[in-house]
């Protein structure tokens, strides 16, 4: 990540859990987790709803995730490269 980059928390604990569950589901179904932003702790905000940068590779549309991995907003984590580039 670029020095000085500013990332904020997800809006609620439920939103954080949903993203964490999506990451886990993709990984369980064979996608490759290259960078895992789960479990990040931001000093001074230890109870915040933060998920760090996450990269998931080889997400296939046939994974049984009900297209949930594709429904995550593009402005925040996670990102899903599908064309073989990282």
Question: How is the secondary structure organized here?
Answer:
Blueprint: H1 13-28, E1 32-35, E2 55-57
Antiparallel strand pairs: 1-2
Verbal overview:
The protein has one helix and two strands. With 86 residues, the chain is of the alpha+beta class. 13% of the residues are buried.
Summarize the structure.
This protein is α+β, with helices and mostly antiparallel strands and 86 residues long. The chain contains 1 helix and 2 strands. The longest helix is centred in the first third of the chain and has 16 residues, at 13-28.
**Strand-residue fraction?**
5-15%
Q: Let me know the number of strands.
A: 2
Q: Figure out the total of helices.
A: 1
Low-pLDDT stretches are none
- Name the quaternary structure: single chain
